[in-house]
Fold each of these.
Amino acid sequence: MSEDLTPIKWFWKHIPNFSGELLFEETLYKHTFYRVGGPTRVLAIPKNLEDLKLISEGIEITKIPTAVLGFGSNILVSDNGYDGLVIKTTKLNLEVSAREEEGKLIVKTGASLPLSVLLRNAIQGGWGGLEFLAGIPGTVGGAVFMNAGTHLGETKDKLYKVVVYFFKKPPVSLDIGDTRFIEFTQNQFKYEYRKNLFVPEEALIYAAEWIIHKDTPSNIKTAIDKILVRRKETQPIDHPSCGSVFKNPKNKKAWQVIDDLWLRGYQIGGAQFSEKHCNFIINLGTAKASDIKALIDLAKSRAKQELGIELEEEVKYLGF
Ligand SMILES: Cc1cc2nc3c(=O)[nH]c(=O)nc-3n(C[C@H](O)[C@H](O)[C@H](O)COP(=O)(O)OP(=O)(O)OC[C@H]3O[C@@H](n4cnc5c(N)ncnc54)[C@H](O)[C@@H]3O)c2cc1C
């Protein structure tokens, strides 16, 4: 790569052609729920497909490492930040519409749509079946990527179609020709608990379709309100966090493991295993990513040594 094509210079040069935002050395704590994390070389917030095409061109020319971010409600960014490009998807595709297809009621959503807005539409439109998403503070893209859910339901069971966009050239093996889009239908989904195994690394989720059923707005609203009240009672939502840090191991809840290790309320620097829900690590105001990571590492190593339990993170890392 020649000197005048460093990633930063390439993206600087193309600011006038970009409808969304291109930010340089942007500190990611502003873009994550934990409110921690250092800068990224480039933060791209695309507004449309033209922006995505430009980003893809930049990635191919400059070979800059790339990561995708939604609302940042499940991501821990290192204090040193990320030496690459972060594509923040929150303004890219906010569509939401319903249709009937072969007797099924389908809702199409853009990946950028906040789940809270999807649920507001669900109440208005009488779209039942998505209530389990209440209180999960992410985007549609984040929910599809993570298979977000609770004991009341999981994203994978309600999905009909997932549309992904390749920001890097699709692998030849996929044989999809010139297009950058690929649609996955139900029999192509591969999901596990809080994990997808099918969204290609070089792609981002652009849209998703959900199967829903007709219900009354008041039933849907009542179910959602009940979930929100319960969350308020049981979760420390007055502090920055990423929700549950660990997945539940077999036959046990992750919070019970933390409790059995006497880590409820334990603090390192400005980070603490919440007293209220100890599978949440909260930022008390001055936490660094390294404080949060130190708590995670401590719980993992003690769970293994003292209880023979392998704790696996639900939270995703960037820049570690
Ligand atoms: C208070 C609180 C409560 C929570 N409760 C729950 C809960 O009950 N259940 C639950 O499952 N989660 C919960 N979470 C975690 C989080 O909200 C979910 O994981 C959510 O789905 C993340 O969405 P996001 O848009 O914020 O994704 P981000 O945190 O921005 O990203 C998460 C991962 O998804 C990837 N990603 C995001 N968008 C895209 C895209 N468009 N294309 C490709 N990859 C993408 C990112 O690269 C990253 O690996 C909670 C979080 C908080 C703060």
Amino acid sequence: MSTAMNFQPDFSRALSYFQAQPNYAVSPLHEMQLDGQTLLVKDETQRMGLGAFKALGGPYAIARYIADEWQQQHGEVLTPERMQDEDVKTFASAMTFVCASAGNHGLGVARGARDVGAKARIFLAHTVPQGFGARLESFGAEVVWAGDNYSQSVEAAVQNAADTGATLLADGTWEGYTELPKLVMEGYTVIGEEMRAQLSVKGQWPTHVYLQAGVGGLACAMAYMIRHNWPVQPEITVVEPDAAECLQASHRAGQPTDVEGPDSNMGRLDCKEPSHVAWHTLEQCDVSYVTLTDAQAAAGAEQMTEMGVATTPSGGAGFTALTLAMAEASKTAGFLPLVIISEGQV
Ligand SMILES: Cc1ncc(COP(=O)(O)O)c(C=O)c1O
């Protein structure tokens, strides 16, 4: 395995960046009841006004990229405050960030580019809800509808970046393309550190954590943070649609493996190609894998919405997996599950 596949994020660097942002707040960790069982619910549905955890990825990667380029050219280390100065914004205005998105990563990139004065071009497959396109445009991004599925929109974005000299800012990684998505995932590590701090105040640690995955970036960042920084270790389960179980297929094959399947109603998790860095990291984090059908995911999202956190089949997939595993898992002494609701209703 090449060293490019190593993920060694600096969560404190990401946390200090966000703590300097006016729209940053620690997201809530709710305690809820389900059939007499207490569960912990990390609620990302309001994150930085974008409605999903991905608000921590693209904007952070863009800020770091610009700070690194500036430092190389000017020898100055940029503070988050300094990034708002006109000379830095003029420097950033020459840059265009390109990505494909199932929705939320594009919002992060569009908002991150706007905040630093750069441009964004987002490629969306025709399966992405129309509403995402309008929201992206409201952040000043150029929206290009391309392809019948996520993989085709990724291909279009990669090609466009190569043709135009724009900077590709994917959330997935592959052989030869790893560094910017690692920064995206470093941004997500903030969630893991927030949870560690919240749990230590409670003095309670979960026995089971369920992490929904598309390309695997969120699951990778959370599993890394849990295994490296939490004092009490839970079982970790990675949850994918049965139509897009690319991480589980990679685990079975012992190498990154693409899958085929129909479209899933878990649109944000419907990624048929795993992030190679994410998968390699997950392999070192002792995780297990489960899949969900569309019907299970829809029912789980409805249940969580009724419980008070309105979400989608993608955003509630970890919770759905918990509901299905509850009878067996609850036999564990001190059973205390934790799930992340990764987006609000779209
Ligand atoms: C709401 C939501 N949940 C989970 C995921 C999965 O994240 P990843 O693709 O990093 O595995 C995404 C990705 O877009 C998402 O938008």
Amino acid sequence: MSKIIPVSYESKPCYKIVLEQDFEQLMEYVKELGYRSSQKICIVTDSNLEALHLQELKSIFDSYFEKVISFSFSAGEESKNLDTVQKLYEELIIHHFDRQDILVAFGGGVVGDLTGFTAATYLRGIDFIQIPTSLLSQVDSSIGGKTGVDFSQYKNMVGAFYQPRLVYMNLSLLQTLPKEQFISGMGEILKHGLIKSKAYFEWMKSNYEAIMSLEPEAVEEMVYQSCLIKRNVVENDPKEKGERALLNFGHTLGHAIEKLSDFSLFHGQCVGIGMAAAAYLSKELGHISENEYMEILDVFKHFGLPVSVSGLLAQDILEVSKSDKKMVAGKIKFILLEAVGCAYINPNLTDGQLMSAIESVLK
Ligand SMILES: NC(=O)c1ccc[n+]([C@@H]2O[C@H](COP(=O)([O-])OP(=O)(O)OC[C@H]3O[C@@H](n4cnc5c(N)ncnc54)[C@H](O)[C@@H]3O)[C@@H](O)[C@H]2O)c1
Ligand SMILES: [Zn+2]
């Protein structure tokens, strides 16, 4: 069943995304990169993956590499900071890791972002391989080379664009992913359909049962289609100068809601609410019909994503959205739907329009 997606960076072939149902092919792809068995491997992971799956992965690397170590930190966004990076640097130094050696990010987006950043900066850059294990990291964070950590209260404030040598997914690991994390990942996946492919959005609607019951073929097809969309966008715009901003659909208000709710809601849930608001404005501007708008909300609800939030003030959401680092000359670059499956950047919305969108999702 396996699927491969080649990714280019600045028009040159760069790395492969490999979708598999197990780890059987992993070493084939790793060896293809020309690594020698004397190169050292450090598997970076979090406490949940360590307990569930690290042993299996380590024994696979042990079968070829002479020295394989692991570094694990407490699961969660709270660990995605420079303190953890520093501990990882120390571990690498103690074990004499040099420029030839390799980091493996084994976990969700937190592990991927932190490991990528460490790889980008340790000895001015060493190789790293992504083995994303959460749905969100498989379809989103492991592709596109954005790495980084949070700094004080600022999310992703310190980072680098740095490409992995390989992204290998064992989709069967999704079996142990908590349901709410799966649903959070669905937020990004539905986003991919809405911004780039109506056919894909429709496909998800008709494959709801198979997706939610984790049928391997349906999940593989879904992750594959999402990775293709993300790959195409980041290849066209690797440093987020234009088209890549479309991936922020639902995120401008979503991030504000995430912050104001003190991260008590999952990222995908906040993005769902943000997308519902953006869909409302797309309808108000006459781009999509009332029916299409209602259907988008229904699909979100069906997949378990909220389309409204309580306990927040519209004015606060607007203020926090405006303080987001992705503004241009004081204007929010808001992403709207031209049609279902086609997004565009609208930099000219008034505060009044934004407030009406926000109010549409307040309970
Ligand atoms: N670099 C990018 O382009 C990019 C894009 C989107 C998000 N991100 C970042 O990604 C992070 C969010 O990623 P995430 O949602 O994967 O969060 P996460 O890494 O915290 O993983 C979510 C939870 O699921 C657990 N988990 C992961 N895979 C599992 C599995 N197979 N079985 C059991 N438990 C499993 C983790 O231990 C964790 O508790 C954020 O820090 C965000 O900023 C980065
Ligand atoms: Zn997101």
